[in-house]
Design a protein that fits this description.
By secondary structure, this protein is of the alpha/beta class. It is built from seven helices and seven strands. The protein is globular. One of its GO terms (biological process) is cytokinin biosynthetic process.
Length: 189
């Protein structure tokens, strides 16, 4: 069993293809007997994802800050629902429980969490796989910015190995299943 920490949107005001992709990803995750750790809400893409995992028989752990829980958006159907004191503790819980990280399409929070786990991997704090589900080119602008970082030497070209890009759900699982940690160069060596 692999535990996937998944970052995605809590918005309902988005194109229907994104919840559909989350549903397909969640269904596949549950069918495989894997576990989900996610942001703990029952709204938006997050809610769709968690429901799909549960419907397919997977284990779901939600992690959300008390402030969000008190707004009434906590997913009480989770197998385990952790309510934290704040966002920092939430992120640490989600990172600690992960065997792999996946970024589905999402907004500022998704980007912030993705960049944190990328940076932690770059600095040697973990060596777990990180995959961006680049549905219909959603992450192309971010990937182009990463290329700018490589071209201007703000990031070493070797750091492309920190993450994988998948165009489809099955590619996410193929990457994680075949993942072998590689040597990441020391940042200040």
């Amino acid at each position: 069993m692999t535990t996937f920490t998944v970052y995605t949107s809590s918005s309902d005001a988005i194109d229907p293809r994104y919840p559909a992709a989350a549903r397909a990803f969640g269904r596949r995750l549950g069918e495989r007997g894997d576990a989900l750790v996610y942001g703990g809400t029952d709204v938006g893409v997050m809610g769709v994802l968690a429901a799909a995992v549960r419907e397919a028989g997977g284990h779901v752990t939600g992690v959300l800050p008390r402030r969000m829980y008190e707004r009434g958006i906590g997913d009480e159907a989770c197998d385990e629902l952790l309510v934290t004191d704040g966002m920092s503790e939430r992120k640490q819980q989600m990172i600690a429980r992960a065997d792999a990280f996946v970024a589905l399409p999402g907004g500022f929070g998704t980007l912030e969490e993705l960049l944190e786990v990328l940076t932690l991997k770059q600095l040697g704090y973990h060596d777990r796989p990180i995959v961006l589900l680049n549905l219909d080119g959603f992450y192309d602008p971010l990937l182009a910015f990463f290329e700018e970082l490589f071209a201007t030497s703000f990031a070493a070209e070797a750091y492309r190995a920190l993450y994988a890009v998948a165009a489809a759900v099955d590619e996410v699982f193929a990457h994680v299943d075949g993942y072998r940690p590689g040597a990441v160069p020391e940042k200040w060596a």
